[in-house]
């Protein structure tokens, strides 16, 4: 199965390395000419994943059409750009494996649903889980969910991408796998705020638990299965990103907690903090299905410039309620 990768950021590059591990050729499309040059001439993505030497079997291209001979495409562009990038490629019925984590602004669709709209003939799969790109690239042990409604294709993809230190768990809950990854990015911002504002470890643990309750309520309302949300792509990824400054979302939250403005921090950065874009859409999507997500609402308020102490005070002052 020849793999193509759409997106030359840190995660697309690390996944290209995963796919190339057995010696198979992998073609990676990158939007930036300097990324293409860096990979093809220096065997390194010095822009988004510096310090990692890539095998000769990974070739980069700036031409999306070059991916047309691939047997499966890993889609690793940021969530808000998946529609436009996929719209530029004529991949027919080639399976698309969505690896971005987010909800599209305007449509409130998960990225797999966006891909299904753009390429109705293509089988859709989702790869998601607790996966910092630099750890995967370093060959450190990692486990992910590989979800696909077509069990045979899902198993084939899971086997193709698995490696000695990269364990893939097959699932057919595509929506569940996507919702975990999208929602945890927003909750990671909240946990970063706790860190930045010095609110303590009790508060962070409470946010992880109550955030998981929000993820579960929203996921069930959108058709996810509870066991998927409690698995690698949900709770697993939530725990990872809510407890590490390696997370861009967590780090953005730390800045917010220290009183910096979101727009200032997001301006001019080349790397993506998906939670900042997902948060406002998630607020609308939750309201559309009648699900309360107070932590997510608080993140939206902070991203829009609200005062940290006031937002935290309002969260704590809500009427007492039952846990479940
Ligand atoms: N980095 C990780 O550890 C990691 C792990 C799992 C999932 N992800 C997810 O993978 C996706 C990609 O993240 P990343 O970390 O590889 O990116 P990155 O932050 O390393 O790089 C930014 C990426 O955004 C792309 N980009 C910027 N503007 C664009 C535009 N207008 N159109 C198309 N692409 C554009 C750039 O080409 C680049 O590929 C995100 O959804 C992220 O949540 C990342
Ligand atoms: O750096 P973040 O916050 O985008 O997180 C990266 C991955 O999603 C972790 O699984």
Automatic annotation (TrEMBL):
As given in the record, the signal peptide range reads: none
Keyword annotations of the record: Cytoplasm, Lipid biosynthesis, Lipid metabolism, NAD, NADP, Nucleotide-binding, Oxidoreductase, Phospholipid biosynthesis, Phospholipid metabolism
- What SUPFAM superfamilies does the record point to? 6-phosphogluconate dehydrogenase C-terminal domain-like (SSF48179), NAD(P)-binding Rossmann-fold domains (SSF51735)
Q: What residues does substrate bind to?
A: 101, 248-249
What Pfam families does the annotation carry?
NAD_Gly3P_dh_C (PF07479), NAD_Gly3P_dh_N (PF01210)
Question: Where do the catalytic residues lie?
Answer: 184 (proton acceptor)
This chain's protein is named Glycerol-3-phosphate dehydrogenase [NAD(P)+]
Q: Which organism is it from?
A: Sphingomonas alpina
Please name the gene that encodes this protein: gpsA
């Amino acid at each position: 199965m020849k793999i193509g990768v759409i997106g030359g950021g840190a995660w697309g590059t690390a996944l290209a390395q995963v796919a190339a591990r057995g010696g198979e050729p992998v073609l990676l499309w990158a939007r930036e000419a300097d990324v293409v040059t860096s990979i093809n001439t220096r065997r390194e993505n010095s822009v988004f994943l510096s310090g990692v030497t890539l095998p000769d079997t990974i070739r980069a291209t700036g031409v999306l059409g070059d991916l047309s001979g691939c047997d499966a495409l890993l889609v690793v562009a940021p969530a808000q750009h998946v529609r436009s990038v996929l719209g530029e490629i004529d991949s027919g019925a080639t399976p698309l494996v969505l690896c971005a984590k987010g909800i599209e602004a305007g449509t409130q669709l998960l990225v797999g649903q966006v891909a299904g709209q753009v390429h109705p003939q293509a089988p859709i799969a989702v790869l998601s889980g607790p996966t910092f790109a630099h750890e995967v690239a370093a060959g450190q042990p990692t486990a992910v969910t590989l979800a696909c409604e077509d069990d045979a294709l899902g198993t084939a993809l899971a086997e193709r991408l698995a490696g000695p230190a990269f364990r893939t768990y097959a699932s057919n809950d595509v929506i569940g796998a996507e919702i975990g990854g999208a929602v945890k990015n927003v909750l990671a911002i909240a946990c970063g705020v706790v860190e930045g504002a010095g609110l303590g470890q009790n508060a962070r643990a409470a946010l992880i638990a109550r955030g998981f309750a929000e993820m579960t309520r929203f996921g069930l309302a959108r058709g996810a299965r509870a066991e998927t949300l409690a698995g690698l792509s949900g709770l697993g990824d939530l725990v990872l990103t809510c407890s590490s400054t390696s997370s861009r979302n967590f780090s953005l939250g730390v800045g917010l907690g220290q009183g910096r403005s979101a727009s200032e921090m997001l301006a001019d950065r080349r790397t993506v903090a998906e939670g900042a874009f997902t948060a406002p859409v998630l607020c609308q999507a939750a309201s559309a299905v009648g699900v309360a997500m107070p932590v997510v609402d608080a993140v939206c308020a902070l991203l829009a410039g609200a005062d940290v102490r006031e937002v935290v005070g309002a969260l704590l002052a809500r009427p007492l309620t039952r846990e479940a």
